[in-house]
Structures are given as structure tokens and as C-alpha cells.
What does this fold into?
Amino acid sequence: MPTEYTRLRVLGRGATAQVWLADGPDGIVALKVAHEPGLLRREIAVLRRVRHPAIARLIAADPNGNWMAMEHAPLGQCNDWATGQSLATLVDFGTSLAEGLAALHEEGIVHGDVKPANVLVGVDHRPRLVDLGSATPAGQPVGSGATPGYMAPERLKTEPATVATDIWGLGATLYTVLTRRAPFTAEDATAMVWAPLTTLPEPLSAVRPRIPHALDELVLQMLAQRPQSRPKSALSVAQALGEALRDAPRAPIVGMYKEREILRHAVVDVLQGGRSMFVVHGTAGSGRRALIREAVQACVREGLRLIPPGDRASILAAVSVGGPCVVALDGDAEGGESLLQQLILTDTPVLVLARVERPMLSLARRGARHLTPPRLSLEEATLLLEAMGCDANRAEVLHRRSAGLPGAIQGLLAPTPLAGLSASARKVLQHLHNGAVTVPGLAALLELREHQLLDLVEPMMDRGMVVASADGMWLSAVR
It folds into this structure.
């Protein structure tokens, strides 16, 4: 223990050292003392080699690696400091942290354990990256210790740390700072350890609805399972953060929490060579499109091939090329069920997402899973209004008028003028204004097949002009 420093109190204790708040020749410092001789040599060498405002400054050190004095960051861990800070301040903080990591990477060094506990806040409200004892040349193994839920997937596989590992850690730290919660949740500590390898984090907008869409996407991209799918450098992240802040929020998805988590697991399963088919059924305006769209966006972030729309032959040919891919299609379209019957037999790693009105039992018997979006509760409808910046006091009325359909609620808030409706759609409304009509009955009145009627009605339901009964058998106009 250096005699020139007076220890005041313990700041923290890790596997290799204990950190004290101390007073010495240079004033108040964070004094790190090794548990065993020489354990701090590597960290001291890195701090002498790389100097950046976002990396805690080395003030003095024992040449034998037994202790070192660093600048003290009095505002504590970044996740605690983040409470009450503006979005612009948090993004600026993240930009500085990304620039600090870029300085490390320019020297061929990766931190390997970027997480909120290792990002402190200086008196200037800027980041101070600490605990560089795990820092190592890119491509070499790092220590095994880590906080559950903050260990990159490749580290859980005991693969060497790379720049992409630090990008993931930066994404996890930004997720926590921006949402005030960890990227992953689990029922127990063991599940939390492995969560980054088995699922994906839910969008930030699910926790912070008014977040800019580009910022949401950027952080999720940083947390991609596959290292090659993440941004290529910390410097590119720093540049993208400022641009992302200028983007506008988008209406978030509210509810369907269990269904969305199931699909996030399915995306990871396909990445690892699995095959899944999900039949997403329910009435128009219930959120089927949103549920499928969120899963497809996750697939695209991970670099899965998105099979474009086409005829049966072209879709099957594209899937057979090989490599993980995703197919999203309308199962009620002509030939849709037959195509699904062929897709479920493929050996290619593929995630198939089919949007239908009613369950397809023939596919269930072959292993397809069925999901149906639950209707919004009054509480969820209130959250949706708040997320859209609308008057939450209207929630009860809108919830009742929409029958809990999210598409209908959004439509009621911005109804489309009748002048924009086709002649066929006007006929639908004319019949429904006289009272509720069954789907088969209305199809017969309009001389349409049921699936043609549903294709016609679905956009009207999304705009809040028409609602369906809970069983999907009856349609009525919103008055």
C-alpha cells in the first residue's frame, strides 16, 4: 500500500483489486490496490499507452504493478447518473464513450467488458471508462468474469474478444442508460447469464416510447447476435448517434409481450440453424402485421436473407439456396396454404411468418406454431395514447369503440376521409351502417369470396372505420 495516500473509504472490490477513495499528493483519487503482487501491470500499461477524455486518467502507479492512482469520477456509475438526464445529454454521453473506445481500438486494444459498472461519470458529466485489466489485443481471449446479461454472445461461446465485442458492450450500456433497465430479463440468474445467447432485447421503444426510431434501430443493431452484423467501428457509432437523435419517433407496438418474445427466440434459433413456422392469426387491426414486421426487422438486423414476395416457384427456389432466411406471406391468399405446406418441409434454416384470419390446423399437425395477438387492455390502450403523444383521458372511450384493436385506435385518432375510399369499400360501409353483419353474410351480399372481403376490410379496420367481434365472425362500422 503506498504511504503517500490516505485511504478514506472503499469504492469497490473486484477479482484482482480493491479500489479506495484516497487523498494524496494530487488531491482526491481512486486508488486501486492489487490483491496479489503485479496484477495491475497490464492495466497500467494500457492507460499509459492510450489517453482519451473518456478513459479514466492514470495519475501515478507502482512500477511493479501493485497499485495505481486514477482520477476519481464522483458521479458514480452511468446507469445511476442517467436518471433525470435529457435524451440529448444521454446521446452526447454515448458519443463520447464511443470515441473513447475508438481510441482504444486504434491502438489494437479491446476492452472486452464494457458495461454500466465500468463506465463512471466525471464531475464534467462525461464518461470515464475504467477496469481495463481485461483489455487485450484484439482477437485474444479475455477473462471469464462478467455481469449476467452484459456478456456478448461470442464471449459466452468462449471466443476471442474483438472490436465487435466492445460494440455489443457499448450497445448494452447505451440500452441501459436510455431505458433505465438492462437489455435482458430472465426468471433466474442462470437464465440471465445465457440470455444474450438465446434471445434478443426488446426494442427500446417498448420501454421508452418517444425515442427516435433511428436511435432505437442503432442500439439494437449494436446488440446483434452475430458480430459481423454489428456496426463496423466505434467511430461509426459515434457518428451515427448524433444523426439518429434528429430522427422522429414512430408509433410503438404496445402489448403482445409474450408473442413478441417468442418470435425473438425464433429469430435466434434460425440463426443457429433451426427452422420455425408461425401462423399469426386474428382479426384485421389486431396487430398481426406489427407483430410480423417487428420479427422481420430483427431478422434483417441479423443479416438473414429476406425472401421477396413472388409466386410459389420463386419463393421455394429462393429458400432452397441455403443459409438462414425469413419468409413473410399472406397465408389467406390464393395458394397460400399450399405454399406453407411445402415450406414446412424444407431443410433450410428458415423462419416462416404467415398472416391469416383463422388458425390452420393442417399446419399445426405438422409442427407450425400458432400465435394470435391479444386485444389491448385499457391500461395498454392508455400507454399507446401516451406513446403517440395523445390525450390519455380519451383511452376509455377509444378502447370501447375500437374493441381493443390497436389498429382501430390509431385509425380513430386519424380517420381517413370517406373521399379516399374505393367504391367497394363504400359499399361495405353502407351495409355495416345498418348493423353488424357476419363475414360470410357480407361476402355474399357483395358477391365476394371471404378472403377477398377480408383483404378489402383490413385497411379499413387499421384506420378505425370497421371493427370485428372477438371471434372474428362479425363486422360492424365504428360510429
About this structure: The chain has 19 helices and 17 strands. The CA atoms of residues 61 and 191 lie 40 Å apart.
